[in-house]
Amino acid sequence: MNILVVNGPNLNFLGIREPEIYGKQSYYDLVNFLLAYGEMNDLHIEVYQSNSEGEIIDIIQNNYSRFDGLVINPAAYTHYSYAIYDCIKSISIPAIEVHLSDIYSREDFRKSSVIEPACVAKFYGKGFNSYTEAINYLIKGRN
Description:
The protein is an alpha/beta fold.
């Protein structure tokens, strides 16, 4: 199984940005965690990150046909990017929204996602394990 993981703005600052919320592990740690998880489970995982909305859309549009599923952490774009929503709606693979933190216990604006209706599931609040839950959901959907 091939899985595309796309991360949005400021995730490259993991370990630096608000460690009391996001933890002390770096973005490099997240990428290595995901690649190791893929190896252990006989999955091909590619991980991308961008701070640019248009680049996130380009990554998805240029790569989705090579993958069986998309795991996306749209970060701040979660709350207002109808362009990413439209992009996800236009592709033929299932997409899952993920977040490291418990978005429902944070600021009010974080509780609203315009991306969620384009996705088949959503996992949040479990740090790096939010991603593995999403990947496992995709695996179960194939069986």
